[in-house]
Design a protein that fits this description.
Residues 17-29 have a biased composition (Polar residues). InterPro entries: CopC/D, CopC_dom, Cu-Rt/internalin_Ig-like, Ig_E-set. It is found in: Cell envelope. The chain is of the alpha+beta class. Helix content is 24%, strand content 29%. The protein has a 4-stranded antiparallel β-sheet with strand order 1-3-6-5, with no helix packed on it. Strand 5 and strand 6 (71-75) form a beta hairpin. The longest helix has 27 residues, at 133-159. It is elongated and about 75 Å long.
């Protein structure tokens, strides 16, 4: 019985960020070259999303993110204007739990990097406790399917 209680607590835990490079709140004087976020669990590589958005609201990451164990990373171009840069992430842990959030680092000296495309407004709305929009849509669709099935069963019982 005691073992069941111990394992129940472990099974209920979800993946959470444990650090980033640059660290949240860190000030740097040049582009880090690579940005990464680490978690307390391994990640599913096929669902990783990681962007770097500058104070000018442009992307600065280069290419797709890669996952190695519990860390997601992406190469970063030379950065542009001095100011706050957002590291936005959305990953799925090995247990299937989605995690999204944001880390901020500050560039103290303007770089000569060329900005990428303009980021959309959704790039700055991530939070550690947020629930991904696709999951909300999936839940709503599932509830509607269950309700539709229940109505069909009730109608068949009445007509029989």
């Amino acid at each position: 019985m005691a073992a069941a209680l111990v394992f129940a607590g472990t099974a209920a835990a979800h993946s959470a960020p444990t650090g980033s490079s640059p660290e949240n709140g860190q000030t740097v004087d040049r582009s880090p070259g690579v940005v990464s976020v680490s978690f307390n669990e391994n990640l599913r590589p096929e669902f990783a999303y990681l962007t770097v958005v500058g104070p000018d609201r442009h992307f600065y990451q280069q290419g797709d993110p890669t996952v190695e164990g519990n860390t997601v990373s992406v190469p970063v171009n030379a950065l542009g204007p001095a100011g706050d840069y957002e590291i936005n992430f959305r990953v799925t842990s090995a247990d299937g739990h989605p995690v999204q959030g944001q880390r901020i680092f500050t560039l103290s000296v303007a770089g000569d990097g060329e900005p990428g495309p303009l980021a959309g407004p959704e790039e700055s709305t991530a939070s550690d406790d947020g629930f991904p929009a696709w999951a909300v849509v999936l839940i709503v669709v599932a509830v509607l399917l269950v309700l539709t099935g229940a109505v069909i069963v009730l109608l068949r019982r009445r007509s029989a």
